[in-house]
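#struct-help
A.M.: can someone run this one for me? Single chain, 132 residues.
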Amino acid sequence: METKRQQKFGRQIQKDLSDIFQKEFKMLFGNGMVTVTEVKISPDLSVARCYLSFLLIDDREAVMDQIELQNKAIRNALANRIRKQVRIIPNLVFFLDDTAAYAAKIEALFEGLVIPPAEEGDVPNRVADEID
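D.P.: on it. Structure tokens below:
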């Protein structure tokens, strides 16, 4: 369980990383967009696990590789923003957040599900059973 300090620091990192990706590292994504969905901070505030979600990007793994190659530059850009607020600039570890894709897949499964309508005799009448 994260402390309030970790949560607050995580929200600040999330906000700053989102801004950095939209303004300074836009060339990594072409026409696509990146969303920093969540940032989890280690108890000693030295490691930030950043979960990223992508829109309008087909090859997510290639973009993740590019982000890993630019990790040092991204951390440097983050350091320039939060240097006066924190003692330690956290190491950034990026993960692909596929929650939206997973939810879309589940939604598609539910849409494809065919449930036949129940007939009158098939549904037990619980009220009648409880009275008897």
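A.M.: thanks! The two ends are 51 Å apart (CA to CA).
D.P.: also worth noting: The helical segments are 4-23, 60-69, 71-82, 99-112, 126-131.
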